[in-house]
Design a protein that fits this description.
- By secondary structure, the protein is an alpha/beta fold.
- It has a single domain, classed as 3-Layer(aba) Sandwich (Rossmann fold), CATH 3.40.50.
- Helix 1 packs across helix 2.
- The mean pLDDT is about 90.
């Protein structure tokens, strides 16, 4: 088994379909509505915006994006996440749900939760689509697995010649999991 940059060992890989993502969001929305019913949703850009938009629509809540990432132009360039789009002041006095697509270390989500509390949020909870078995745990998640998760919106990218190719990070990770 190969470890990823966060120290997780992948047992294989799983390419999620759009239908998988919708099913996961339906499951999360039902559970969240029953247990929490937030006033608003904060989506962590870039990839966390996809489930955040879906959940905001399903729960009929306002959505506010933030950008808090180790990446720049889709490449990891920082050891720690940095803010580039700040959290809205609308969280003051409200119940907030912070959404991302995946929780590895939880550092990004914990920073967003901490910022929401600093800005006066009454209560803050978290949700992701997926977690690894040894990951930090959000309040809600739909899938726990040690597989490398390949998101449908992230699988293909345009290369320099304008052709769609598998995302280089996925290609590299899959080749480590399943040597060619």
């Amino acid at each position: 088994m190969q470890k990823d940059r966060y120290g997780h060992e992948h047992t294989g890989y799983r390419r999620l379909s759009w239908d998988d993502v919708m099913d996961m969001c339906r499951e999360l929305a039902q559970t969240i509505r029953t247990e929490y019913d937030p006033d608003l949703i904060v989506g962590i850009a870039k990839s966390g915006m996809v489930p955040a938009v879906i959940l905001a629509s399903m729960l009929r809540k306002d959505l506010y994006p933030v950008r808090l990432s180790r990446r720049k132009k889709d490449i990891v360039v920082r050891e720690k996440p940095e803010w580039s789009v700040p959290l809205t002041d609308e969280v003051d006095g409200r119940t907030v749900l912070v959404v991302d697509e995946f929780a590895a270390t939880g550092e990004t989500m914990r920073l967003a939760v901490g910022e929401a509390r600093k800005k006066g949020a009454r209560q803050v909870k978290t949700a992701t689509l997926c977690v690894h078995t040894d990951s930090w745990r959000p309040n809600w998640y739909a899938l726990e697995t040690d597989d490398l998760i390949i998101q449908p919106w992230d699988y293909e990218v345009l290369d320099k010649n304008g052709r769609f190719v598998i995302h280089p990070e996925y290609d590299e990770a899959i080749s480590r999991i399943l040597p060619r």
